[in-house]
From TrEMBL, chains A, B, C, D, E, F, G:
Gene3D superfamilies: GroES chaperonin. It comes from Syntrophobotulus glycolicus (strain DSM 8271 / FlGlyR). The gene is groES. Heptamer of 7 subunits arranged in a ring. Interacts with the chaperonin GroEL. Belongs to the GroES chaperonin family. This is Co-chaperonin GroES. GO terms for molecular function: ATP binding; metal ion binding; protein folding chaperone; protein-folding chaperone binding; unfolded protein binding. It is found in: Cytoplasm. Together with the chaperonin GroEL, plays an essential role in assisting protein folding. The GroEL-GroES system forms a nano-cage that allows encapsulation of the non-native substrate proteins and provides a physical environment optimized to promote and accelerate protein folding. GroES binds to the apical surface of the GroEL ring, thereby capping the opening of the GroEL channel. Keywords: Chaperone, Cytoplasm.
Amino acid sequence: MKLRPLADRVIIKAVPSEERTKSGIIMPDTAKEKPQEGEIIAVGPGRIEKGERIAVDVQVGDKVIYSKYAGTEVKFDGEEYLILRESDIQAVIG
Amino acid sequence: MKLRPLADRVIIKAVPSEERTKSGIIMPDTAKEKPQEGEIIAVGPGRIEKGERIAVDVQVGDKVIYSKYAGTEVKFDGEEYLILRESDIQAVIG
Amino acid sequence: MKLRPLADRVIIKAVPSEERTKSGIIMPDTAKEKPQEGEIIAVGPGRIEKGERIAVDVQVGDKVIYSKYAGTEVKFDGEEYLILRESDIQAVIG
Amino acid sequence: MKLRPLADRVIIKAVPSEERTKSGIIMPDTAKEKPQEGEIIAVGPGRIEKGERIAVDVQVGDKVIYSKYAGTEVKFDGEEYLILRESDIQAVIG
Amino acid sequence: MKLRPLADRVIIKAVPSEERTKSGIIMPDTAKEKPQEGEIIAVGPGRIEKGERIAVDVQVGDKVIYSKYAGTEVKFDGEEYLILRESDIQAVIG
Amino acid sequence: MKLRPLADRVIIKAVPSEERTKSGIIMPDTAKEKPQEGEIIAVGPGRIEKGERIAVDVQVGDKVIYSKYAGTEVKFDGEEYLILRESDIQAVIG
Amino acid sequence: MKLRPLADRVIIKAVPSEERTKSGIIMPDTAKEKPQEGEIIAVGPGRIEKGERIAVDVQVGDKVIYSKYAGTEVKFDGEEYLILRESDIQAVIG
């Protein structure tokens, strides 16, 4: 991956909806926050709080649930990614 | 459970209204905040404050009262769950 | 009591208005914040601030004045209760 | 006094406007914040900040200037009082 | 002065516009914030931050520039004063 | 200079637009924030954070870029100045 | 570079869209936040938090992705630059 996220940001590749049934997780269309499933591609060094760096609590390869309306979209080598803050990740799958 | 919540989040399975009378707790329809009853299915490691992790004050299996309008809904193996922050939990039943 | 409030929350049983004259406290109807009188039924362990737990400054049995528009209503064994944060309590009576 | 204010709250008895000329302080009707004069009747133990209790900087008996639109009114033994936070007190008279 | 300001408040006597030319400072009528010139009459003990009292950085007798729309007006012995927070003072003249 | 700015404030003399070409810096009229160029005339002692004073990171004589809509205008000895907080200064020129 | 950014600000030269394909990063026009690519030209000394300076996590020469709507535009020696806070930088490329 050529992108290094800053602070507590991570880079996520969204899992297409047709592949989502594998994980057994379904995001209901009627959900209030439109969660989505994705895979962590890169992880920032963590944010600094009171002079100490707080490591990010997910790893490259983790499948995660995140809010659809969070983050910044970028396209790289023909694929779309999302740059998110760790706090926008709800849970790790599996 | 295949979902690991991050930080101070918990995963809750709502108790259907027809089973709620068992616990003796009734959420009045006229209540201002529409509280609901649910069971804790998974608990995050706690949020970090000033470099120290603060453990979540509920456990898997706890029946809790939480606000209806909080959290993110996900569906997994045919069942609906809610990902909530600990601060959205009002009280533990029993 | 079957409800254990979390953090700095307390559970309150409102004192019906016909019993309020005993305490000598009257909440004027014209008051800006509509204070109410109630009795503390259960007390949470206190919130955590900078890694230290801050004990709640009221006890079970205390009669208190609180704001009418604060908190979450629940019904339990046929009686209504209110789950409040300690900061919504104005004063202890007596 | 039968009321014990919590945290950094104080209980104040307003000085009627006909007695205010004694102190020499006049609150202009055209003032932007409508300050008022009152006497401190009870003082809370102080709020907790970073684990330490900060004592309230007024005493029972102090005459103070406070903002008219702050606080919660209660009536007790036929007299009206105001429950205020210390930060709503502007100055001590005398 | 019979007024003791609390925390980081000060009491100011506004300098009438006809006397302002002495100091050489002119507040343009078209200014965005309508600054005013006044003299410090009384100084509070300072606010408490992280358990330590922070002394106020002006003294009785200082001529200061402050924002016109800040503070609480009081009248005392026939003169009008303003109770301000230190943070509403922009600069000391002279 | 007869004005002593408080806390993290500085006093700035705006550089007239006809002299700005000298520095080589041009503020585009279409810019979103309307930056301006000015010279630091006086510097406050710095704000206090957690009991320690944080020195201001500019000096008297520095040419700086600041936001046009920040600060308080004053006129002194026939010249207009601006009282700004340090955080409204974007960069030092030169 | 004649501009020294203050605190946690950086100065960025935007990469024109026709040169962006080199890096392989494409910002989709339909993106919610309109990210852009640029090169770091100057870096501030870092902001101060709790009395300690936090170094900025990018270096001069870094290619970065940042939000289009952040920052202050300046023109210098015929070229346009952007003064940004570090927190407006999403990721470093390469």
